[in-house]
TrEMBL record, chains A, B:
Location within or outside the cell: Plastid, Chloroplast
Signal peptide segment: none
Record's protein name: Phosphoribulokinase
PANTHER family the UniProt entry points to: URIDINE KINASE
Main localization (coarse): plastid
Keywords on record: ATP-binding, Calvin cycle, Chloroplast, Disulfide bond, Kinase, Nucleotide-binding, Photosynthesis, Plastid, Transferase, Transit peptide
GO biological process, one term: reductive pentose-phosphate cycle
Length: 374, 374
């Protein structure tokens, strides 16, 4: 049901009671603090996902995998500011929180996210990377799934508390360095010294504001050098860990063979042959910043389709809707970075887990309160 | 159908044709080489199992576990010579081939086993350990399952070729030494020096005639010191390997989680708690004396029933007839040595695999030739 009307900010607190149903508004949380409410009821609750990572760590690839799971590609708002980082698909809107000032003390981020979560559209600032100033804001309507991504969407406890699920992409220093060399030295002609200097220069901020967020994440994707090739520092073959917090609402960790025990698995053998250096999985319980977690690790890479489907068929709790859905998703985006290793596999799986979580929340929202109490 | 009559040795070759069904005789292969035939047709083919190991390595415990799988305890022949090593149960007869001279060149062992395999009773010599001479022989009727055990039942290729399945118990020197200290020093008051000397004295014969048999075995149970306790040499906690030859007729190796891949599994975790030093399983393909094998390894020991049933429930291809049969068998004989570790577990499983193999052979023998060709 869509009911649209106009209210002043004063009427906000009384809407629920005097209308008898959830009436939603647009609140404009722009930097100039002009606040007014506009309109419109929406039917579903917005599920809010946080994704934090340093720059150049694969957030946009992850977002493309995530929105693909829900069907339909995510695109920038039509006719919008070309500097917008926002991506919109049928179900999902991805906004970049870096457009808000990182040390925002006025709670604009929190209020904006809170409004969207409650089904209220907001106007979001757009940071212009060329001028260094804020462009006119863009209107963000409440989607089914709102992903807030950026360098520190989980840094502020008030924003963090609004997240239904949070993810941190943790690229180890060795791999970050190897990737930067590949991109900045081989492709852009930077010197090794300047790459080292730029990493060093960013380190204090990274250590203070980005890295600490991983302790709050419900899932961390940690990318490390392979252990299958002794002394490897190329950063081409990767060892990737999916660290999943236990006890997260509507999220049950993926497991390998036997939930809660400790396992290593080299699938390459009599039934499946793999090329050098092979593939090795590990799984088991662990603790991470004092939380109970389950960790699934993949070292190595897929060379062929049969390897991918074989691995998928032995993982449990991956929230697929049909046999081979992970493989299908990864093949669909075979050109995305990491499609042949644990980063692609785990991003895809987390996408499926988020779909699951969204569907549980949506079904609960559709159920009368009486029934959910049982 | 039982048809009994007497034949001279000369009539042996023609019995099958002139009677129209399988007519079986008793051939007396005694050391004095007096040969005559006596009687009786039996319906089933005898399945012949070989079990080789050094003395003091647990052959008799294994035999008790094996016969228990078929139901009913194995006992010495009633009214027989107390020096007899023979054990008889409803289905199984265990004879000790050590009663034949180890360097028997006349083929008496082979002929005796061949006769039993063909359903013909034999007279078996009994070596008197006190006099060092041979006592009057005992009559062995062809059982459903004949187990020939001893120091070298697989040494002679002619005997080996008669085996439907063969097992070698391979106790590593470290564990053998620890066991001998426990038994001969702690219980019998021997000195450490005399134990070392006795092991050394037996070594040339062991290396020449006993140890080489393991290359021919379809299954080897190898007993090693634990790796869970660094530097352990007590020999109480054991690491036990079950090495299973691939391609053995009517025998499909046990596996853990995923057949043909390489796996380690520590079942102790969130669902199962274990006391120190825990339990660790390994599984995977390997080669053993040039043969393809699958190896299942258990390090550690069971403290409680739930550990045993949990482990059993995660093993595949164990040839049980109902859920928990391995656990039931092990609990039934909880007082046998090795009931809390891999020796008991793997002996029990091999017992079940032999029952399976026997049933397949028996069902094939009962099926008309036309049908088995399909």
């Amino acid at each position: 049901m869509a009911v649209c009307s106009a209210y002043t900010i004063q009427s906000l607190n009384s809407t629920k009671t005097h209308l008898g149903f959830r009436q939603k508004q647009v609140i404009l949380y722009t930097p100039i603090k002009k606040q007014s409410t506009i309109t419109c009821s929406v039917s579903d609750k917005t599920v809010v996902i946080g994704l934090a990572a340093d720059s150049g760590c694969g957030k946009s690839t992850f977002m493309r995998r995530l929105t693909s799971v829900f069907g339909g590609a995510a695109e920038p708002p039509r006719g919008g500011n070309p500097d917008s980082n926002t991506l919109i698909s049928d179900t999902t809107t991805v906004i970049c929180l870096d457009d808000y000032h990182s040390l925002d003390r006025t709670g604009r981020k929190e209020k904006g996210v809170k409004a969207l979560k409650e089904g209220v559209a907001v106007e979001k600032p757009i940071y212009n990377h060329v001028t260094g100033l804020l462009d006119p804001p863009e209107l963000i309507k409440p989607p089914k799934i709102l992903v807030i991504e950026g360098l520190h969407p989980m840094y502020d406890a008030r924003v963090r508390d609004l997240l239904d699920f949070s993810i941190y992409l943790d690229i180890s220093n060795e791999v970050k360095f190897a990737w930067k060399i590949q991109r900045d030295m081989a492709e852009r002609g930077h010197s090794l010294e300047s790459i080292k200097a730029s990493i060093e220069a960013r380190k204090p901020d990274f250590d203070a504001y980005i890295d600490p967020q991983k302790q709050y994440a419900d899932a961390v994707i940690e990318v490390l050098p392979t252990q299958l090739i002794p002394g490897d520092n190329e950063g081409k073959v990767l060892r990737v860990k999916l660290i999943m917090k236990e006890g997260t609402k509507y999220f049950s960790p993926v497991y390998l063979f036997d939930e809660g025990s400790t396992i290593t698995w080299i699938p390459c053998g009599r039934k499946l042959t793999c090329s050098y250096p092979g593939i090795k999985f590990s799984y088991g319980p662990d603790t991470y910043y004092g939380h109970e977690v389950s960790v699934l690790e993949m070292d190595g890479q897929f060379d062929r389709l049969d390897e991918l489907i074989y691995v998928e068929s032995h993982l449990s709790n991956i929230s697929t809707k049909f046999y081979g859905e992970v493989t299908q998703q990864m093949l669909k985006h075979a050109d995305f970075p990491g499609s042949n290793n644990g980063t692609g596999l785990f991003q895809t799986i987390i996408g499926l887990k988020i779909r699951d979580l969204y569907e549980i929340i949506a079904s609960k929202a559709a159920t009368p309160l009486q029934a959910t109490k049982a």
